[in-house]
Each structure stands twice: as structure tokens, then as C-alpha cells.
């Protein structure tokens, strides 16, 4: 409980801190209710309902935390998305199991309640672990360390919950059993340790939104030579990713092609929120923010930054070499999650991808096409643009036709450099 209050006091506006506080309140309620077994006039059945409902709701809140940590994935209820449905299902299941909890004449929990509680803890723990392991590679270095600590706390919390649900149905270890006091001490120590592990990342503000879209510094007051429409996908057919990269950096660092304000100037500051000067981009009615970019490439990130003078734009390197900026091409789902997460959070995003040929060496073409279709659909329903650079000579005619469908095909001049 103290860990939850401290986390909330440090970050009162953080959704993660609020969820963690509610989870700790549920855990505290379950622990106190269980400890008051001998000093209350409530029946075993009422106590069982309180303990089971509180503990399962606490676990469902921790499950919800894994959806926004270490990568902030949107949870939608209106309209619902898969994460919103999962949260609603977990919460409803926790309440349903808690309200149906019952005690047997000899034990505190009957066999059915114990089995349901154990199954819920096991399922929620496995689901949360999978979510954390999938999100962890997309986080920055601090986020990955915090995810490891958070996972350790989650496993301790789940182990204590499963052990308690099994033991409370045993006469020897129930509240009045021979080992009842020992079980209570183990539960208290385990919950305290888990709370401390959970608190660390939250107090340090590590449960945040790493990889959030950031605009590049405007280096030119001239308009872009290229017009990129929102919700469009541009398929650039070229032998080397030169023309497409020029498209990307031009719109990223200058004014929009159809900018209506000719008084724009090259701003030297990235602290737009504190700047009091009149800003044409801020007053723009077409885009809520300046263009924010994301690069996925086969080229080394440092070389990309030095060649095109990019400072804040995140660069993902398609490589089997482990590193904070690299992604294994065989882990196509991880790459897709990264792109989709960026486009969903960006207000005026442009995603650039080259290396489709390389992706097909680690995945078959139908799988790569399915991923590209997912990126395309996300770009269409968001305010983002997507630029795909590929060499048509690396694919057969049927594969090229499938890639060109539903996308704007760009064929630069042969002499373009």
C-alpha cells in the first residue's frame, strides 16, 4: 500500500501510477481481510468473496500495466480494440470468480474456488509475461531494465497468489490450520517484495512512452519539393534507397509542400512548448504538429544520421547484430508492433522503410506482404504517411503486383540521385 501511495505521490498524472495504486489497494484489502479471519464475525463465504475479488482485481490491474509498459500501447474502449477487450474480459472474469467464491465446511476456500483462482493467476501471469517480453525489445535501454524488474515482481506476486489459493483450501494451512501463521508471513513478505520491485520503475518514471514521435529540427524555411498526403502509402521502385530518402528528409526538415503561411522561418529550438514566438507550424490548420519521422533501414543508423543530419528521428536498423537500435528481421511481429505503435501515437507521422528485400530473406514473401498490409492499414486509419523503398528486380512480377496494389507507385527517373 505504501509503495502505491509513494508512486502516486511522485507521478500523480501518470496512468501507470494510478493503476499501480489501485492494484496495491486491492492487494492490501485481500491481505487485511485474510488476516482478520479470527477477529471478525463475517462468515467464511463473505471473507472468501472479499479476498478472491480483491486479489484477482489487483492482478487484472497489473495485467493492464503490462499493456502500457514498457511501450505505451493504446487501450481503446470507444471504439474497442483488442487491448480494450482484453482488459474488460480480465476485469469481468475477476469480479465473476470473486462473487462466486465459496468456502467449504472445513476449509476456507472450497476446491472449485481454489481451482478458478489458481487458473486465473496462471493465465494472467502467462499473458502479462508474453506482453512484457514482446514489448521489451522495442523500449530503450532504461525501459528494458525496468521491464526485467517489473517481470520479476510480477512472477513473485503470481507465485504468492497461486500458493495462497492452493493452501487456503487445505485444512493444515488454512487460517486455523497448523501452518496458517507461516503461510500468512510468507504472503506478507512476498507481497512486500513484489511491491518494492513494482515501485522502482514507476517512481523513476520508467513506465512511460519511450520512442514517442519527435519532430526533427527545421533547417530550412523553404517548402518541401514533395507532397505527401496523410493516410497514403508510397511505394518507391528504385535500385538503391536514394530518391525515397530524399522525399523523407525533405518533408521532415522543411515546410510542408502546401504550407499556406509564407512567413515560416527555420526555428533553432526544439522546445516549442515554452517558445512564445509566433509559429506558423503551430497555427497550421492542416496538421496538429510538425512532421515526425521513423526510419527502418538496412544502413547503419550512425551513417544515416551523419549523411542526412538527423538528430531526433528514431532509426531502426534491420540486423541480426544485437543492439538498442537494431531489430532482427526474423522477428517481423516485433518490427510491425514498433511501426504500428509509432503511427498510432503520431499526429503527423511519416514512416520510411527500406529493406523489404532483406526481410524476405528471413521470412517468406506472404508473411512480409501480410506485414506490409498491416502497416498500410494502420497508415490509412491514422494521420500518417508511409514510404516503402524496394528494388523490383528482387521480386517476381506477381509479387511486385501484390506490393503495388492499394499503394501509390513512385518510379523516379533513372538518373535521379
Biggest sheet features: 7 strands, parallel
Give the overall shape, derived from the CA principal axes: elongated
The total strand number stands at 7
Number of domains: 2
Q: What proportion of the residues form beta strands (DSSP E)?
A: 5-15%
Radius of gyration: 26 Å
Please write out the topology.
Blueprint: H1 2-10, H2 15-35, H3 44-68, H4 82-99, H5 111-135, H6 141-167, H7 180-203, E1 232-237, H8 243-253, E2 292-297, H9 301-308, E3 315-318, E4 326-327, H10 332-345, E5 349-354, H11 356-362, H12 365-381, E6 385-390, H13 397-404, E7 408-410
Parallel strand pairs: 1-6, 1-7, 2-3, 2-5, 3-4, 5-6
Helix pairs in contact: 1-2, 1-7, 2-3, 2-7, 3-4, 3-5, 4-5, 5-6, 6-7, 10-12
Please, could you describe this protein's structure?
The protein has 417 residues and is α/β, with parallel strands linked by helices. The protein has 2 domains: 2-203, Rhopdopsin 7-helix transmembrane proteins, CATH 1.20.1070; 232-410, Rossmann fold (3-Layer(aba) Sandwich), CATH 3.40.50. Helices cover 51% and strands 8% of the residues. The protein has a 7-stranded parallel beta sheet with strand order 4-3-2-5-6-1-7, sandwiched between helices. Helix 1 packs antiparallel against helix 2 (15-35) and helix 2 (15-35) packs antiparallel against helix 7 (180-203). It is elongated, with a radius of gyration of 26 Å. The model is unreliable at 205-211 (pLDDT under 50).
